[in-house]
Amino acid sequence: MHILDILARDATTFSFEFFPPKTDAASDELFGTIAQLQELKPSFVSVTYGAGGTTRERTHDLVVRIQRETRLTAVSHLTCVCHSLAEMTGILERYTAAGIENVLALGGDPPKSMGDHDRGADAFRYAEDLVTFVRGCKAADGRGFGIGVAGFPEGHPGTPNRLLEMDYLKRKIDAGADYICTQLFFGNRDFFDFRERCDLAGIRVPILAGIMPVSSKAGLIRMAELAAGARIPAGLLRGVNRCDDDAAVANFGIHWATEQCRGLLDGNAKGIHFYTLNKSDATRQIYRNLGVRDSVGLR
Asked: What is the CATH classification number for the domain harbouring 192?
C-alpha cells in the first residue's frame, strides 16, 4: 500500500524497523519474526541499508520477500553513498517490478572501511537530491513512490546550526518527501519541540516518532553512539543504574518506552516507529501496555 494511503487511513501509525542480517540462515529467521507481526497489523515495516550499500542485496531481497509472501507493507531504505545513477535506477526498477511503492531516502555515511571514499563520485550528494530523483520515477501504481526522510529531534549531527538544519529539512520536503521519520530519542520534549519548529518552518507533512526500547546497559551506550550522541535523560539513567541485570534493564526499558509512547499518543503524534534491533518482543509488550490492538483499529 502506498504510504499516502496508509497515512490517510490510520489516525495513528505504528511501524517497525529491521536491519538485514549477514547470512541466509539469519535472513530466514528474521523473515519469520517479521511475518509474525502480521497479527498486529502494523502500518508498515521498514528495512535498513548498510553503510555504503554494504547490505544492499539483502535489503532488496528481504523487502521483495515481505512484499510477495506477507500482507505487510514494506518500506526500503535508500542511501546516497556509493551509488551511481545507473545503480539507483536499477534498484527502483526492480522495486517497481516487485510492486514495492515506498522508500526512505537518506544521505548515509561511507563505511569505516571506505574512509577515503570520494563522495564526488556519487550520483547524489544529499538526501534532497535523492528525493528529487525518486520523485521523478514511477512506482508500481503509476503515481510515483511514497517517500520518507529522516528528522532529528535532538539536532542533526552534521549541522550544528539548528536554523540551517530546518532549512535543509524543508528542502527535502519541498523536493517531494511525503513524511518524516525521526531518529530515536528518549525525551518527548525534544520531539514536541522538533514538531513545533517544523511547523514554524512551514513543514506540514506527518512526523513519525522514532522509539527504541532500552534492553541492556551496554545497549544504552550503543544507542547513544548510533544516534550520534542521543541525550539520555537523568530519569532513564537512574532507572537503568538501579537494575541488577539486563533482564531488569529490559523490563525498565519497556516501561520507559511505554510511557514515552503514551505521552506521544496523548500529544497527538501522527505515528510511532519502533527501532526493533531485529527483535519484536519488547515492542509487542509495549503494544499490550498501551492497549493497542493494531494500527488499523486506531482509525
From this structure: 3.20.20.220
pLDDT at 164: 86
The predicted pLDDT at position 299 comes to 43
Domain annotation covers residue 149: yes
β-bridge partners, 104: 77, 148
Q: How many domains does the chain have?
A: 1
pLDDT for 121 beyond 90: no
C-alpha distances (whole Å) from 275 to each of 160, 166, 167, 257 are: 25, 24, 26, 11
Q: Which residues are catalytic?
A: 17
Evaluate whether residue 172 is within a structural domain. Answer: yes
Which helix (H) or strand (E) segment holds residue 44: the answer is strand 44-47
Q: Which domain holds residue 209?
A: 3-292
- In-domain check, residue 297: no
User: Is 109:51 a contact under the CB 8 Å cutoff?
Assistant: yes
Q: Which whole-number Å values give the CA distances from 5 to 9, 141, 146, 177, in the listed order?
A: 6, 12, 9, 14
Degrees to nearest 5, angle at CA 261 with 257 and 266: 150
| 299 located within any domain | no
| CA gyration radius, the chain | 18
- How far CA 41 is from CA of 36, 90, 196, 246, in Å, comes to 10, 31, 30, 30
In the structure grid, which three cell numbers stand for residue 42, read together?
A: 502494523
List pLDDT tens digits, range 270-295. 999 999 888 878 988 998 899 876 65
Q: How confident is the model at residue 113 (pLDDT cuts 50, 70, 90)?
A: low
CA 257/CA 155 separation, integer angstroms:
21
